[in-house]
C-alpha cells in the first residue's frame, strides 16, 4: 500500500524535449543581438558625448553648411556648428527623454494599474474613466500645458510624455493583473495564507513582467519620437542642447542643398526606435521560460 | 473533537441564484470524509468557502467553524492566519495551480519561510524533505525546475507538498486526480492515503467519482444541485443507496467497473 510504483509518465524527462529547437533559439538571439547593437551604438554615442565631442556644441567656427569632409565628419549646419557633435548631444537627449518618460510611466502606470485591478464598483469605474480621459487627451496638448506652467525644458517634455504614457501603461497593467488574479495559482497562494501584498510582489508582478517589459520598451521608442516631435515644435530641450527634433526642424529649410543635416538625425531616430523594439522582442522570449515551449 | 463544523451554509450570487443551499457537515480531527456529486453541484464552492475564498460576487451565509475560527464574515487578516495551517487545498488542475514563472522549490519554500521562519540552508533542506515525502525522485532537480518542465503527476505531487508544507489539520483535496492519467491516479490516491494516515490529518476529499472517494474515505456526503442528498458510511452507501441520485452514481461506477472487468477477462 505504501509502496509507490512509479510509472514511466513520472520519470524525469529528457530536458531537450521541452526546449525549443535550435533554429528558434538562433532566431531569437539574432533579434536580441541586432537590437542590442543598434540601441547600444546610440547609447555609446550618448555616453561618449558626456565626456567628449569633436567640437563644443556651440562652436560656430566651422563655416556655414560645409558638406561632409575631413574637418567635420558630417559637415556643419547653417550656423557653422559641427553636425556630428550635435548628433552626439542629440542622442544623449533622446536616451534621457526615453528613460525619463518610461521611468515615470512605469512607476505611475504600474501603481495605478494594480490599484485599478483591485478596485471594485465605483472606484474601478472612476479609475478607468480617468485613465481613458488621460489617454484621449493629446500628449502634445498636455505637453504645451506643462511647458506653459513650467518652462520649455527637457524635464517638462519628459514629464508630459511620461504622464501621458502612464495612462496607457496603467490600462495595460490593469488588464494583465486582472488576468493573473483569475489564475488558480493565485487562489493556491491564498489557500496557503499568503497576504495580498506578497501575492502582488511574488506572483502578480513577475507574471506581468514579460509583457510589461515589451510594452515599456515600446513606450521608450514612442517617447523618443514624442520628444523629437516636441523639440521640432520648440517645446523640448532649449538650445544650445541640440535635440534630434530641433536639428530636423533647423535643417528642413536647407534640405535640398545640405541633406545630411536632416538625414543624420532622422536615420538615428529610426535606428534607436527599431533597436529598442528588437531588444524588447528578444527580451520577452528570454524572460518567459514558457514562451519558448509554446513556440516550438 | 470537531475540526470543521459547517451549519446551514448557503452560497448565493449577487443576482440571486442559490448555488449551495443549507448545507451542514462536520468533520472530526483525523476523520476522512468524501464529498461527492456531479459537476456544478456546489462541491468546489463549498471547499473554497471553508477557507473564505469565494469568488467575487458570491456571498456565504450560515456558519463555518474551522478549528474554532468562524470563517463566514471573517476579515481577511484572520483568514490569512487560518489558511495553510488549519486547512489547505489541493486543486484539480496542477498546471494552473503552480505559478508558471516561479521555480517549484521557491513555491514550496514560500509558506515554509513565512510560517516557520526558516532561512537559507535550513529552508532548502525543508523544501527537499517536503518533496521527498510526496515521493518525488531527485528532489533537488525538481526544486530547480519550472512547472512546465515536470510531468503532470509530478506537478500534482508538488501541489500536494505545498499544501502539506505547513502541516494543516485538514487537507481539502478537490478532485486531485481528475486531471491525471489513469495510471498516475492510483499512485496519487495511495500517496494521499498514506500521508494522511501518517499524520493523523483530517481529509475532505471532493470528487465526482464514487470509486475514487471510496478508496480514501470512510464517510461520504452526496451533493446534488447545491443540496446534501445523502450522508453515510461509504460501504453502506454503495451497498444500499437510499436516494435515487446516489443509486444512479453507484450504478454508473459499477457499469464502468464491470466494463473493465469484461475487458480484463477477455
Structural features, described:
The complex is a heterodimer of chains A (296) and B (266). Chain A has one domain (26-51, 81-295): MetI-like (MetI-like fold). Chain A contains eleven helices and no strands. Chain A has helices at residues 15-18, 22-51, 83-118, 121-136, 139-149, 154-181, 184-191, 196-232, 244-252, 260-287, 289-295. The longest helix of chain A is centred in the C-terminal third of the chain and has 37 residues, at 196-232. Chain A is elongated. Chain A starts with 14 loop residues before the first helix and ends with a helix. The model of chain A is unreliable at 1-21 and 292-296 (pLDDT under 50). By secondary structure, chain B is of the alpha/beta class. Chain B has one domain: P-loop containing nucleotide triphosphate hydrolases (Rossmann fold, 3-Layer(aba) Sandwich), CATH 3.40.50. Chain B is built from ten helices and ten strands. At the A-B interface, helix 7, helix 8 and helix 11 of A face helix 2, helix 3, helix 6 and helix 7 of B. Chain A: Residues 91-280 form the ABC transmembrane type-1 domain. Chain A: It is found in: Cell membrane. Chain A: Belongs to the binding-protein-dependent transport system permease family. Chain A: This is ABC transporter permease.
Please give the number of β-strands of chain A.
Answer: 0
Taking all residues together, what is the mean pLDDT of chain B?
A: 85
Largest Cβ-defined interface = A-B, 37 and 51 residues
Domain module tally of chain A? 1
What is the subunit organization of this protein? heterodimer
Distance between the termini of chain B: 50 Å
H and E order of chain A? HHHHHHHHHHH
CATH class of chain A: Mainly Alpha
Amino acid at each position: 500500500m505504501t509502496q509507490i510504483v512509479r510509472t514511466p509518465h513520472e520519470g524525469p524527462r529528457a530536458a531537450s524535449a521541452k526546449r525549443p529547437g535550435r533554429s528558434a533559439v538562433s532566431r531569437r538571439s539574432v533579434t536580441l543581438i541586432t537590437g542590442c547593437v543598434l540601441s547600444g551604438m546610440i547609447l555609446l554615442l550618448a555616453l561618449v558625448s558626456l565626456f567628449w565631442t569633436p567640437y563644443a556644441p556651440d562652436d560656430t567656427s566651422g563655416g556655414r553648411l560645409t558638406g561632409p569632409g575631413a574637418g567635420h565628419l558630417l559637415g556643419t549646419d547653417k550656423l557653422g556648428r559641427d553636425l556630428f557633435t550635435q548628433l552626439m548631444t542629440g542622442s544623449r537627449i533622446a536616451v534621457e527623454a526615453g528613460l525619463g518618460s518610461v521611468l515615470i510611466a512605469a512607476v505611475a502606470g504600474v501603481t495605478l494599474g494594480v490599484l485599478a485591478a483591485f478596485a471594485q464598483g465605483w472606484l474601478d469605474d472612476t479609475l478607468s474613466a480617468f485613465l481613458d480621459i488621460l489617454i484621449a487627451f493629446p500628449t502634445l496638448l498636455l505637453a504645451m500645458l506643462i511647458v506653459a506652467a513650467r518652462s520649455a525644458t527637457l524635464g517638462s517634455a519628459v514629464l508630459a510624455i511620461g504622464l501621458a504614457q502612464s495612462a496607457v501603461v496603467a490600462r495595460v497593467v490593469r488588464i494583465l493583473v486582472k488576468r493573473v488574479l483569475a489564475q488558480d495559482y493565485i487562489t493556491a497562494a491564498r489557500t496557503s495564507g499568503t497576504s495580498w501584498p506578497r501575492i502582488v510582489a511574488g506572483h502578480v508582478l513577475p507574471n506581468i513582467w514579460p509583457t510589461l517589459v515589451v510594452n515599456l520598451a515600446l513606450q521608450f521608442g514612442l517617447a523618443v519620437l514624442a520628444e523629437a516631435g516636441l523639440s521640432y515644435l520648440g517645446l523640448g530641450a532649449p538650445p544650445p542642447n541640440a535635440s534630434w527634433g530641433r536639428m530636423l526642424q533647423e535643417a528642413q529649410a536647407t534640405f535640398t542643398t545640405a541633406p545630411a543635416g536632416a538625414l543624420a538625425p532622422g536615420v538615428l531616430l529610426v535606428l534607436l526606435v527599431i533597436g529598442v523594439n528588437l531588444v524588447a522582442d528578444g527580451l520577452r522570449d528570454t524572460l518567459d521560460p514558457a514562451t519558448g515551449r509554446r513556440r516550438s | 473533537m470537531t475540526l470543521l463544523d459547517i451549519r446551514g451554509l448557503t452560497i448565493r450570487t449577487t443576482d440571486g441564484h442559490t448555488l449551495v443551499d443549507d448545507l451542514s457537515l462536520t468533520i472530526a480531527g483525523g476523520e476522512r470524509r468524501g464529498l461527492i456529486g456531479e459537476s456544478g453541484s456546489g462541491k468546489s464552492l463549498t471547499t473554497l468557502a471553508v477557507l473564505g475564498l469565494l469568488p467575487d460576487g458570491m456571498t456565504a451565509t450560515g456558519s463555518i467553524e474551522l478549528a474554532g475560527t468562524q470563517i463566514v464574515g471573517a476579515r481577511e487578516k484572520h483568514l490569512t492566519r487560518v489558511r495553510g495551517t488549519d486547512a489547505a487545498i489541493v486543486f484539480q488542475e496542477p498546471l494552473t495551480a503552480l505559478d508558471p514563472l516561479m521555480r517549484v522549490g521557491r513555491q514550496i519554500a514560500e509558506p515554509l519561510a513565512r510560517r516557520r521562519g526558516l532561512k537559507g540552508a535550513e529552508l532548502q533542506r525543508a523544501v527537499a524533505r517536503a518533496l521527498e515525502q510526496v515521493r518525488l525522485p531527485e528532489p533537488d532537480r525538481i526544486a530547480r525546475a519550472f512547472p512546465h518542465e515536470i510531468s503532470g503527476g509530478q506537478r500534482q505531487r508538488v501541489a500536494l507538498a505545498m499544501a502539506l508544507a505547513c502541516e494543516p489539520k485538514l487537507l481539502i483535496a478537490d478532485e486531485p486526480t481528475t486531471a491525471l492519467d489513469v495510471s498516475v491516479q492510483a499512485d496519487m490516491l495511495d500517496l494521499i492515503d498514506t500521508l494522511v494516515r501518517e499524520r493523523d490529518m483530517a481529509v475532505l476529499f471532493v470528487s465526482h467519482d464514487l470509486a475514487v472517494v471510496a478508496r480514501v474515505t470512510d464517510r461520504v456526503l452526496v451533493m446534488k444541485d447545491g443540496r446534501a442528498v445523502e450522508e453515510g458510511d461509504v460501504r453502506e452507501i454503495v451497498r444500499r443507496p437510499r436516494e435515487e441520485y446516489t443509486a444512479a452514481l453507484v450504478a454508473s461506477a459499477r457499469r464502468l467497473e464491470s466494463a473493465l472487468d469484461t475487458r480484463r477477462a477477455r
